[in-house]
Amino acid sequence: MYVDLQKDDGVALLTISRPEALNAMNVQLLEELNEAISRVERDNDVRVLVITGAGKAFVAGADIAHMGGFTPEQAKEWSELGQGILARLENVKKPVIAAVNGYALGGGTELAMACDIRVASDRAIFGQPEVKLGMIAGFGGTQRLPRLVGPGKAKEMLFTGDHYDAAAALAMGLVNEVVPAEELVGYCLDMAKKIASNGTEAVRLSKQAVNGGLDLPLKEALRLETALYSLVFSTHEPREGCSAFLEKREPKWTSS
Ligand code: DAK
Q1: pLDDT for 176-232, tens place per residue?
Q2: Which of 59, 67, 219, 254 could lock 108 by a disulfide, CB 3.0 to 4.6 Å apart?
Q3: What residues does ligand 1 touch, defined as CB less than 6 Å away?
Q4: Which member of 32, 110, 201, 237 is catalytic?
């Protein structure tokens, strides 16, 4: 097993562990990741997912040994498998936080970018070194990276294949926060618990509004926001949230 999933207090912690290859992704690891996303999706007790890596790597990319002998057709299947799983992660109806503990190269940076929020340890290293291997980023890197950091910085990363430390990643907007390595997982779990204490539907629809709106012109995106704002009023959450505020008590987000 390369993927471990633990849950506590509304938060699931997914740890990728394949120490012999610095957590590089092969087909089995991707399939386990896919299965873990399904479990998180189905489990009503889980409100937020945190993803991290064991050891000195978050994920050191796709498995280089696996990719070397691809035919163009196999490369297409591999890319579709990886892209499909990362798209599922991006759109899973619960927030996902990447706790980037170490090397996040190639597919590792791409995995982190498919999460909603990225927190890096001060030992994290990012990069898209695919060109050094004679290939291009295939798990969404050429598309998510320019959306996050702008086309100039994205092209620099994709063309040079250089490594970027956590401070550089923070400066370019690739990560939200940098924290000391020993505090990383605790910091992310606390952030996850804070999110989990808010209205479940409100958080879910906030994610849907941001993700959906990014693909739309502003006018249409604002219409999407109105539609989702209206939708949240079909749940008990706005009434409970407002009553709790006025009654000076904690809200209870049990389902309506
Ligand atoms: N794949 C397989 N094994 C890996 C690996 C990887 N990505 N990264 C590291 N390992 C293995 C090493 O081979 C080594 O194995 P042994 O020699 O012990 O058997 C072990 O992990 C420890 O690594 P090192 O000895 O190299 O450790 P160091 O601390 O010295 O260096 C490093 C750490 C992360 C700087 C170095 O390992 C490194 O540069 N690794 C490669 C990183 C990389 O290039 N990652 C990007 C992979 S390419 C596509 C779909 C997807 C993709 C592209 C196209 N399409 C279908 C279009 C995605 C591509 C990628 O992600």
Answers
A1: 999 999 999 999 999 999 999 999 999 999 999 999 999 999 999 999 999 999 999
A2: 59
A3: 21-22, 24, 60-65, 75, 78-79, 82, 103, 105-107, 129-130, 133, 135, 137-139
A4: 110
Query: Is-contact 19 55, C-beta < 8 A?
Result: yes
Judge whether residue 96 has pLDDT over 80.
yes
For residues 45 and 169, membership in a common domain is answered with: yes
Q: Is the pTM of this model over 0.85?
A: yes
Strand partners, 103: 57, 125
Enclosing domain of residue 53: 3-196
Residue 110: active-site member? yes
Burial call 75-87: b when 16+ CB within 10 Å, e when fewer: eeebbebbbebbe
Shared domain for 169 and 213, answered yes or no, is no
